[in-house]
């Protein structure tokens, strides 16, 4: 009887925990939902807007926000704010960057491209060879304009893989340390500077483009042609990298 209760107790513990080495080697991403929202965003053809991106710096633990201005679908300026000791943002930004044509890749189209690059990169990886247990790409889309409001990239390696974190993103290789922030995109405010086109699609407009099952899961191909021992980042923290580039090893 004692062993029976012990067995049930252990089963409950395992049922409530998520162990990377017990996961299937798969990439979880809703590609059809991504395609639908990307098509709607493109169809709206919003050229001029600004948005606020908020995040917590995982190095100094301070909350920061960046305000990006987009003109003709290109990011032309970025204002950077840091919370003061009172928990408020100063009226004036601590730093402002002006685009030189290549240094500010922060348009909504850039973020859609970032997500798609991550998906294309990991769907073809040999997870078993690279000791990746699973990758989950979670995206929340704005209901009105269909841009990605939030994007979390969560990667788990096999339990016995040694993982380090030194604050250098995206070259860092980690699973889930205590200070790991999986959020790549976190848009808290969005303002259109021009009127929305009259032909903007309603929420239930059928979309052209790729279709797929909701919650599509891809089993990575065991091609065996990737470099062994490659260090992969967990998608990177966009606030740290300064650009919506793909996670590179």
Q: Please, could you describe this protein's structure?
A:
With 249 residues, the protein is an alpha+beta fold. It contains four helices and nine strands. The chain has helices spanning 2-15, 31-44, 108-123, 238-241; strands at residues 26-28, 49-56, 63-71, 74-82, 95-98, 132-141, 148-157, 183-192, 217-218. Strands 5-4-3-2-8-7-6-1-9 form a nine-stranded mixed sheet, covered by helices on one side. The longest helix is centred in the middle third of the chain and has 16 residues, at 108-123. 26% of the residues are buried. The model is unreliable at 12-22, 166-179, 209-215 and 221-242 (pLDDT under 50).
Strand-helix topology:
Blueprint: H1 2-15, E1 26-28, H2 31-44, E2 49-56, E3 63-71, E4 74-82, E5 95-98, H3 108-123, E6 132-141, E7 148-157, E8 183-192, E9 217-218, H4 238-241
Brief sketch in words of this structure:
The protein is of the alpha+beta class and 249 residues long.
Percentage of residues in DSSP E strands: 25-35%
Distance between the ends? 51 Å
The count of DSSP E runs of length 2 or more, i.e. the number of strands, is 9
* H and E order: HEHEEEEHEEEEH
* Number of helices, where a helix is a run of at least 4 consecutive DSSP H or I residues: 4
Shape: globular
What tags apply to this protein structure?
249 residues, alpha+beta, nine-stranded mixed beta sheet, 4 helices
């Amino acid at each position: 009887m004692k062993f029976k209760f012990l067995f049930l107790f252990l089963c409950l513990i395992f049922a409530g925990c998520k162990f990377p080495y017990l996961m299937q080697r798969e990439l979880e991403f809703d590609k059809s939902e991504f395609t639908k929202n990307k098509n709607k965003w493109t169809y709206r053809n919003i050229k001029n807007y600004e948005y606020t991106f908020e995040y917590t710096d995982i190095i100094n633990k301070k909350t920061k926000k960046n305000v990006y201005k987009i003109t003709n679908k290109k990011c032309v300026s970025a204002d950077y704010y840091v919370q003061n000791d009172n928990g408020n943002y100063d009226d004036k930004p601590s730093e402002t960057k002006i685009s030189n044509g290549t240094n500010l890749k922060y348009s909504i189209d850039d973020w859609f491209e970032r997500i798609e690059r991550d998906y294309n990169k990991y769907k073809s990886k040999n997870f078993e060879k690279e000791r990746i247990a699973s990758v989950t790409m979670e995206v929340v889309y704005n209901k009105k304009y269909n841009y990605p409001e939030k994007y979390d990239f969560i990667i788990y390696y096999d339990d016995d893989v040694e993982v380090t974190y030194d604050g250098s993103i995206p070259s860092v290789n980690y699973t889930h340390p205590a200070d790991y922030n999986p959020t790549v995109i976190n848009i808290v405010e969005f303002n259109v500077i021009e009127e929305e086109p009259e032909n903007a699609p309603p929420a239930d407009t059928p979309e052209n483009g790729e279709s797929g099952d909701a919650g599509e899961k891809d089993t990575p191909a065991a091609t065996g042609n990737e470099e062994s021992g490659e260090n992969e980042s967990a998608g990177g923290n966009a606030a740290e990298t300064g650009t919506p580039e793909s996670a590179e090893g």
